[in-house]
Design a protein that fits this description.
6-stranded mixed β-sheet; 108 residues; alpha+beta; single chain; Nuclear Transport Factor 2, Chain: A; 24% helix; globular
Length: 108
């Protein structure tokens, strides 16, 4: 199923799929990411988080549902890879600021 994602979110998933080295470009300067109980603040920290994750696991994330909730864009994506519990569906809660991601929280 194909869904229409806002441009900054589409750019995030495209970079995650094809060039993880560009993930930081999707975020605002002071953006925050919360994933697996850890918080990453700022583009450099977010870029490092994604690069370390990519070193540890190989995966694909395919978004299949989108909704608005409390000022955030919620995307559900199906992940398949070499990580414990694969495959699974994750909930990505994005807050956008202009053409960048201001915050992202990833949960089950």
């Amino acid at each position: 199923m194909t869904i229409e994602l806002p441009a900054p979110i589409a750019a995030y998933y495209e970079a995650d799929k094809t060039d993880k080295g560009r993930i930081g470009e999707c975020f605002a300067d002071a953006a925050v990411v919360i994933d697996e109980g850890n918080t990453y603040t700022g583009r450099d920290s977010i870029q490092e988080w994604k690069e370390k994750s990519a070193e540890k696991y190989t995966y694909t994330a395919d978004p299949f549902a989108i909704a608005e909730e409390g000022g955030r864009t919620i995307v559900i994506a199906h992940l398949v890879g070499d990580f414990p519990g694969s495959p699974l569906d994750l909930r990505y809660a994005f807050t956008l600021k202009g053409d960048k991601i201001a915050s992202l929280e990833i949960t089950l």
